[in-house]
Amino acid sequence: MNTKILLGEDQIPRQWYNIIPDMPGPLAPVINPQTLKPIAPDDMLAIFPMALIEQEMSPNRWIDIPDEVREIYKLWRPSPLYRAHRLEKALGTPAKIYYKYEGVSPAGSHKPNSAIPQAWYNKQAGIRRLATETGAGQWGSSLALACSLFGLECTVYMVKISCTQKPYRRSMMQLWGAQVIPSPSEFTNAGRAILAHDPECLGSLGIAISEAVEDAATHADTNYALGSVLNHVCLHQTVIGQEAREQMKIAGDYPDVVIACCGGGSNFAGLAFPFIADRAAGKNVRCLAVEPASCPTLTKGVYAFDYGDTAKMAPISMMYTLGHDFMPPGIHAGGLRYHGESPLVSQLHHAGQIEAKAYKQNACFEGALLFARSEGIVPAPESSHAVRAAIDEAVLAKEEGKERTILFGLSGHGQLDMGAYDAYLSGNLEDYEYPEQKIREALERLPKVDL
Ligand SMILES: *Cc1c(COP(=O)(O)O)cnc(C)c1O
What we know:
- By secondary structure, this protein is α/β, with parallel strands linked by helices.
- It has helices at 50-56, 67-73, 85-91, 112-124, 138-150, 160-165, 167-175, 189-197, 205-217, 231-251, 266-280, 297-300, 343-350, 361-375, 384-400, 418-425, 436-443, and strands at residues 4-5, 15-17, 62-64, 81-83, 96-101, 129-134, 153-159, 179-183, 222-224, 257-261, 286-292, 302-307, 316-321, 355-359, 405-410.
- The protein has a seven-stranded mixed sheet, with helices on both faces. A four-stranded parallel sheet has the order 8-7-6-9, sandwiched between helices.
- The mean pLDDT is 95.
């Protein structure tokens, strides 16, 4: 019985899988935040290169991965698929548990799968610098890595509270040559407006996105890069699920359930979309997205048009949202704090094609500890949501006395997240459930899009 199922470099996918032609219905239009009318592709050219704008709405099911991108993927891809024999034993479950591990990338998560092509397409378009935001620092470090590999400059607006909570992620970005600016900052109108109102503001992803978008929109040589949510990011991440499908074949198994944590939705999309394509072809596979109870976008949010950022500068999308001024509680250590959700993942959830579940953070860290003590790898706090859900599926299989094949995404390692683990181990992690009242209030502030 194998523990680790590996593929060769020549088995890195040659194409990304684009789910758009296989979606349950047409995509909702993306809306211009100023005019409240659908955006024309050219409107996006101020911040994105044409190649990525085209991928954003491409009708082609398969999109070639550029050779230069595949060459860099070889630094860590294909990533391993593990059979969690020791976790199964610890749980005494008849279920088989597999996990696809993305923590082997240089940045320690799945995010370079999209950072690398995004930097490459921008370089091809003659762009000199990329601006972005980062929360926990995973995306910022991934883009810093990608920019350093292609000789681009990189400016990262990092949520202020994360700069203090995750100082080593900041160091990592600087090590790869990026400029890191705590957000809200004095560098942008969006940042200055927030600080004038609240000088102590600890920042949020929504605010940092506003700053990075403004930076890109006001500098001709600078574009913006987003690490999740957008269709082209989900597209790039499908290397995960394509490899996992091949590896499951080698293992002689097929999953009954595919599980991944969900912030903006990109690692979930990356792992699950190739299996959702199988569903359309008649396979019986469930896909489960797992999110924190403190930022319960899919499980408690509404499916509506909303702004992608707090300052209402980023485009409006149809998605599950908690409201663009959502501010996650400072006590939340588990990541996955974005107010919205990938429009593709949202539409699939709305159509009943995928399931969603929310967990409180102590339950996730408890699962992560059991995982680390049986499988060895320390999960990223984000990934611990998927770990917890996989454990619960395995325990359910035991209670029901049924076999079950579980595949989950271990999106990253948590070796730079010891602050969060310390808080858990010392009993200082508070559980928090986002109140319904706040969601109802946020609904009042959604944009009134009238098509
Ligand atoms: C950023 C991140 C996530 C959440 O982002 P998605 O776009 O929802 O995948 C999950 N896991 C890790 C390790 C991350 O760095």
